[in-house]
Design brief:
Elements lengths: L12 H4 L10 H6 L5 E6 L5 H16 L3 E6 L3 H9 L5 E4 L2 H7 L14 E6 L6 E6 L14 E5 L3 H13 L8 E5 L2 H9 L5 E5 L3 H7 L5 E2 L8 H10 L4 E5 L11 E5 L4 E5 L4 H13 L1 H4 L24 H9 L5 H26 L6 H18 L8
Parallel strand pairs: 1-2, 1-3, 6-7
Antiparallel strand pairs: 3-12, 4-12, 5-8, 5-9, 10-11
Helix pairs in contact: 6-9, 7-8, 10-12, 13-14
Length: 391
């Protein structure tokens, strides 16, 4: 049975009953996979598409195997990663905060964090997208129409916030062109839509929160970001280089008959730390690959975890345990391995730069510390012939 933190007290009994990880798809598979009797995952808030997919995967593990997993919902990236950093959780169904943590930027450009040696397992790319959902009663039709509107952001969640700023950039808007409203968590931000405290917020088109907003008196819409608008996409990519134009066919107001071009990337991203034992990560990834049919229809977006939909040359490296499982699935190529090694080298460069930076007596002031680190980071990456991406 999945056990949840106090933050998820309202989680339905159904969801609470389905969350175990256990490996028993077949006697031979169970013998090959080595997993602890209990595992802990973190995820976005209860009701988010990432949380729902984690629950669907958990049900598969419970039905097919015999290892329990705790799924802990958390309102921001720092809260999601902290249990992993402290060794109290093995994986997280993360968002693009995975990339920001690897790079040591935004909320991770502080003494307590810095660049993190994160690794991928599997990520979901489905019919949905991740963009700004806008209350219909605002009359907004295009991203540029958000000028002067209230935009929600979550304190301590660079993934959500950077995504919002990137989408605004498509409409040639900055945070100075809108009214920023801060919230303590993703769930609180979307309650803000319902309570008319905010006009737009970032979310997957299939999240529980966006669907709730769609059926509320305010309604919800996702303004398009057409791929043909090259200038708009150039502005968006300066802030969110991980985004791609995506023909979106599911979620709020969308269908195969009524698609929209929206920005997206794989989500949720099942990730872990590089130090996690190879056999544990191999077991998790192998089970998810082998038992795909058992969970693909368990939650909207879960089908995107299919092996053939994986982007194996993205911006964060894969764990060696995941690589082993992907090789066995016939999905991993020499080109993927070469790309992975480049990403591992980037992480090593960042780690070396971070160690040297801390030894150089950086300033105690948080803002000064962050600025000094970003300068040192840029110098180290460009010196190694790598793009800094974040200035």
């Amino acid at each position: 049975m999945i056990r949840f933190s106090r933050l998820s007290a309202k989680l339905s009994a159904c969801a609470a009953a389905v969350a175990g990880l256990a490996l028993c798809a077949s006697p031979s598979l169970a013998q090959d996979l080595k997993l602890p009797s209990t595992l802990t995952f973190t995820a976005y808030d209860t009701g988010s598409s990432g949380f729902n997919i984690a629950v669907a995967v958990g049900k598969m593990f419970k039905d097919k195997h015999n290892t329990d997993v705790r799924v802990l919902p958390a309102g921001n990236d720092v809260a999601r990663l902290t249990p992993l950093k402290l060794g109290r959780a093995q994986s997280s169904a993360m968002g693009i905060g995975t990339y920001f943590a690897q790079e040591g930027v935004f909320e991770f450009a502080v003494k307590e964090w810095g660049p993190q040696p994160l690794r991928l397992m599997l990520a979901s790319t489905d019919c949905n997208a991740i963009s700004l959902g806008v209350a219909k009663d605002t009359g907004v039709k295009e991203i540029k129409d958000l000028k002067g509107k209230r935009i929600g952001i979550v304190v301590g969640s660079p993934a959500l916030n950077q995504n919002a700023y990137a989408v605004l950039a498509f409409g040639n808007l900055t945070r100075n062109d809108v009214k920023i409203v801060e919230f303590s968590s993703y769930g609180a931000m979307w309650k803000g839509i319902l309570n008319n405290e905010v006009d737009a917020a970032i979310a997957s088109t299939i999240s529980g929160q966006s669907k709730e907003a769609e059926t509320s008196p305010r309604g919800l819409t996702y303004p398009p970001t057409p791929a043909a608008d090259k200038e708009g996409w150039a502005r968006l990519h300066k802030i969110g280089p991980y985004y791609l134009p995506h023909k979106t066919t599911c979620g709020v107001g969308l269908s195969p008959q009524n698609p929209a071009e929206l920005p997206s990337y794989a989500y949720p991203i099942f990730m872990t730390y590089g130090e996690q034992p190879t056999e544990v990560v191999y077991g998790l990834t192998k089970a998810m690959i082998t038992n795909y049919d058992a969970y693909k229809d368990g939650a909207p977006g879960a089908a995107g975890l299919e092996v053939k939909r994986q982007n194996l040359a993205w911006v964060v490296p894969y764990h060696e345990g995941a690589v082993k499982a992907l090789k066995e699935a016939g999905a991993w190529t020499a080109e993927h391995e070469a790309h992975n090694q480049k990403l591992l080298k980037r992480q090593a460069t960042l780690a070396t730069a971070w160690t040297a930076f801390l030894k150089g007596n950086p300033p105690d002031d948080k803002d000064a510390f962050g600025k000094a680190w970003m300068a040192a980071r840029k110098s180290a990456l460009t010196g190694a012939g790598m793009a800094a991406v974040f200035e």
